[in-house]
Amino acid sequence: MATIVPQPDTQVTTLPSAAANQTATPAQLQARIRDPRLDFYRGIAMFIILTAHIPGNRWTGWIPARFGFSDATEIFVFCSGMASAIAFGGSYSRKGWALGSARVGFRVWQVFWAHIGLFFFIAMMMAALDTYGGFEKSYANSLNLGHFFDDTMPQLVGLFTLTYVPNYFDILPMYLVVLGLMPLLMAMEKISLWAVAATSVVIWLAANPYVIGLGPDGLALAAEPWSDRKWFFNPFGWQLLFFTGFAFMKGWLPKPPVSKTLIIVAAVFVVFSAPFGSWKVFLWVQAWNQDLADAIRQVWSLTKEWRNKSDFGLLRYAHFLSLAYLGWVIAGEGGKRLIASGHSLGARIWAVLLKLITKVGQQSLAVFVFSMALARLIGFVLDQTGRAITTTAIANLTGYVLIILVAFAAAWFKSQPWRAKR
């Protein structure tokens, strides 16, 4: 299941130093070139996220998760860290640790209520379908919500204390915990950047003790009181990727060089790891060469923990960093290769697509909450109309249009056009 981590809704520009900000003229400020990379890539991931969450969607056979260890989840967690460095890193620098942490706490508060609201809206929608629809299947049970409706009082307490976290609703709780670790990491910065790195790595190792030979079961959080199931997205594992993105945007890590050697190494790893990280690619290899497939199948069992999604295994980390490097190189410095140039029809079409995709990326929280509910509704419609190729295409494209509209609506409301202009 591909999911996302919604980030602070930030816009990224190529910024000069603080000293230059103080002396820049209005004309110079207007002349700054917008860097579209962060918003573009998380916008792309949002379309993938919607596709992946539509039940029985034919198009999920072609999302990135089918071709390697990492998927759209990594894109959003990494971009979340980068966006958080922009949104919160400046608060720590300008206002100090206490007020910077207070701002993080306020964001945690917002995301917590987004999680609660999303759960109740989708639960209501599934209950309405089961109560008034008279369908053969139970839509509430399709999300494993039977315990909530059958024994509501303890599950209601669990929902608010995050001890009851159904699988479909697990990404926002993970993000809350990762955000909650930010004050700790920022406190470590006062000691040294090595202390920051050591803290993040130690927390990741606590979730992945197999790396140092301490067994398969690491630090995790209970997802439901009636079983031993843990949170699908273990925040103690996924924080490593979040703070990697944070470190790059904060300047703790230098930007990687554009090197032919690195490009080749990253591309080779992405291509040749595909049959080891994707059953889809593995089946292609099996159809081509059974002996090679048998050899690869043996490796699958050996790498089970290293590619684990819940705890964010090390192979997923390496795979995503390879993809991210290739995407960074392709986009060019400041995202210059993403920005359309010229007046040809192709350039004009790309300019429009870039605007739509980046707008979706900018309004991540609003789009995410809407898309999670929309995906279940589209799945219901497909149940009634069938999943023919044409019907599925119309359903997906309609979903894309709707999340674009939500992104523009959210941006419009945030601009507060009703307020008097100064």
Automatic annotation (TrEMBL):
Species name for this entry?
Parasedimentitalea denitrificans
A Pfam family reported for this protein in Swiss-Prot or TrEMBL: OpgC_C
InterPro entries per record: UCP028704_OpgC (IPR014550)
TM regions (residue ranges): 38-55, 75-92, 112-135, 155-179, 191-211, 261-282, 314-331, 365-382, 388-413
Q: Reply yes or no: does the keyword Transmembrane apply.
A: yes
- Keywords noted in UniProt: Membrane, Transmembrane, Transmembrane helix
Official protein name in the record: OpgC domain-containing protein
Source superkingdom: Bacteria
